[in-house]
Amino acid sequence: MKENELFLPLADNDGVPFDPAVIPALRVRLLEQFGGVTFFPQPNEGYWQMAGVIYRDEIVIFRVVASNQRVARRFLRQLKEELKRDLRQEEILIIERDVETL
Fold first, then answer.
1. Rounded distance between C-alpha atoms, residue 54 and residue 73, angstroms
2. Global confidence as pTM
3. Which domains can be identified in the chain, with CATH numbers?
4. d(CA 63, CA 70)
């Protein structure tokens, strides 16, 4: 079983906040695809460095668990490309890790 986390920035690369409707729409889409989603609505700060410049984003996090990782990866790769395009992002971070449930 795999757990995936999607780190969603709250503004575009110019600092313009996204339409607030993006978050509930994404939550519904993930819920429909995975049958469950955990949403961490508190803004978090993400930092990364490129070419000696430090960048900062405010992000929220979505977490899903998938038993069929092949299907999950296909869905998440497509979703990532859509989000990059629609939200004008250079990158959207999605991580995957092995998990076991009790």
1. 30
2. 0.91
3. 2-98 (3.30.70.120)
4. 17
